[in-house]
Amino acid sequence: RRLVVLISGSGSNLQALIDAAEHDELGGEIAAVVSNRGDAYGLVRARDAGIPAVVLPHHEYESREAFDAALVKVIDRHAPDLIALAGFMRILTPAFVNRYHGRLLNIHPSLLPDYRGLNTHRRVLADGEREHGASVHFVTDELDGGPLIVQAAVHVEDDDDAERLAARVLTREHLIYPMAVRWFMEGRLQLSHSGVRLDGQPL
Ligand code: GRF
């Protein structure tokens, strides 16, 4: 089974996936990494792991549709079973999302459906929440709104700032993302018209 990972930045979730693959705990291999930014540190992580890394600078495309069409070409060249968004900071067109329906995952730093969108850690602190976390979900054309697969919760501590909280949430992201990817790669996880199933049971 083959995975393509899309990134824009640090790529610590990518690293968690690379580490899992190297320990035979991903159910397959990472066929390629694609970034929309040439300065993403995740590209270094990919190259260090011997994984083909492709840069597609989004500002070189005249529209979202043109960028996504180029992205599809690169992805399909690697014939992945699954595509994982890992800190990929671009909104994808419905054409892209529909093309990969049921085989496109995202990780989001909040307990969805709460705190969709950006700056989740800052907003959680501003609201005085006591609990926060991360969610892995199938991607649909509703932003951060697709069917949930797995979540991990953390306590918000009194002395947390956004950086400390983000770091604590990231440690959980690094556990749940490789886990969800492995479920999919092993054929245990499906999205059907009736929802998400793990080992044939509704989640
Ligand atoms: C993570 O918090 C992820 O949930 C969000 O963007 C961040 C990416 O971090 N979508 P990294 O690039 O994987 O380190």
Automatic annotation (TrEMBL):
<dbReference type="InterPro" id="IPR001555">
    <property type="entry name" value="GART_AS"/>
</dbReference>
<feature type="binding site">
    <location>
        <position position="106"/>
    </location>
    <ligand>
        <name>(6R)-10-formyltetrahydrofolate</name>
    </ligand>
</feature>
<keyword id="KW-0658">Purine biosynthesis</keyword>
<feature type="binding site">
    <location>
        <begin position="89"/>
        <end position="92"/>
    </location>
    <ligand>
        <name>(6R)-10-formyltetrahydrofolate</name>
    </ligand>
</feature>
<feature type="active site" description="Proton donor">
    <location>
        <position position="108"/>
    </location>
</feature>
<comment type="pathway">
    <text>Purine metabolism; IMP biosynthesis via de novo pathway; N(2)-formyl-N(1)-(5-phospho-D-ribosyl)glycinamide from N(1)-(5-phospho-D-ribosyl)glycinamide (10-formyl THF route): step 1/1.</text>
</comment>
<comment type="similarity">
    <text>Belongs to the GART family.</text>
</comment>
<keyword id="KW-0808">Transferase</keyword>
<dbReference type="Pfam" id="PF00551">
    <property type="entry name" value="Formyl_trans_N"/>
</dbReference>
<dbReference type="InterPro" id="IPR036477">
    <property type="entry name" value="Formyl_transf_N_sf"/>
</dbReference>
<protein>
    <recommendedName>
        <fullName>Phosphoribosylglycinamide formyltransferase</fullName>
        <ecNumber>2.1.2.2</ecNumber>
    </recommendedName>
</protein>
<dbReference type="GO" id="GO:0004644">
    <property type="term" value="F:phosphoribosylglycinamide formyltransferase activity"/>
</dbReference>
<feature type="domain" description="Formyl transferase N-terminal">
    <location>
        <begin position="2"/>
        <end position="181"/>
    </location>
</feature>
<dbReference type="InterPro" id="IPR004607">
    <property type="entry name" value="GART"/>
</dbReference>
<feature type="binding site">
    <location>
        <begin position="11"/>
        <end position="13"/>
    </location>
    <ligand>
        <name>N(1)-(5-phospho-beta-D-ribosyl)glycinamide</name>
    </ligand>
</feature>
<dbReference type="InterPro" id="IPR002376">
    <property type="entry name" value="Formyl_transf_N"/>
</dbReference>
<feature type="site" description="Raises pKa of active site His">
    <location>
        <position position="144"/>
    </location>
</feature>
<feature type="binding site">
    <location>
        <position position="64"/>
    </location>
    <ligand>
        <name>(6R)-10-formyltetrahydrofolate</name>
    </ligand>
</feature>
<comment type="function">
    <text>Catalyzes the transfer of a formyl group from 10-formyltetrahydrofolate to 5-phospho-ribosyl-glycinamide (GAR), producing 5-phospho-ribosyl-N-formylglycinamide (FGAR) and tetrahydrofolate.</text>
</comment>
